[in-house]
Amino acid sequence: MTSFIYNPALIRQKQLEVEFLSFFHGHGFDIIDLPVVETFDWPGMTEDDLRLMPQRESWVQNGTVHALRHDWTNAIVRYLHKYKIEAERAVYSGPVFHSGSETRQLGMEVFSESTSRQTEALSLMIGFMDEQMNDRPRTAVISHYALLPMILGEEKVADQAIRRALSQRSTSALRQLLGDHPLLDLIGDQPESQVHKLRSAFPEIRGVLGELTGWEETLREAGVEAVYPDITALPSQSYYDGVFIRLYGSGRTTPIASGGQYTARSKAFGMGIFY
Q: Where is the Class II Histidinyl-tRNA synthetase (HisRS)-like catalytic core domain (predicted)?
């Protein structure tokens, strides 16, 4: 006879999903769900799709590529390109599969160019994490994907060797590739000094730095104790094109939530909690 063991952690996981969806629905977010199995047509696959395919759990059946959902924002962007969705704000929950492992996400998306609506949603998420999950973010790393193209130029940012050196934060490799570029002096500085020097060395990016300041104020008002800039951030996919934020809990070395601004059918902002 088969017996089942009561699993309180599983019950709490399901309760948390319902609480999260109900909380955001109560603030005017539409609840959305998408298939965990995505389908791809080889001729229509984008560069982002092809680049991510090695990380996906995928298979081919009857000439069609199938893959387990790799990322909720990616799935939503693909859905928005294919169908029309009227929602201005949406909330979701469910699993994602990445390089052979499964994690679960709670997330929200704001399909609006209004920065105030985007920052309001971010504050709501941090409030939920604090009150319902007892896991208030203590640290935030914030960046803007326009920074590096403005500092280095589009051609250098597209160079795979430079991108690899940036992702590895290898100053020796970057010095070989970039020479005595001012970026090299900034990487080793304290975050506060980086921003000050950026304003002086690259006056053309002051508008972008102003955007980051606004988001930093939102994070601090929501109770995040420390906010640090990351001037070497590179977008994982081409549609990410604005502010990007990673949230960390006390003593955590991996983010408990991340997200940022992107372009789907219009400007948008999304954040996902990993739990």
A: 11-270
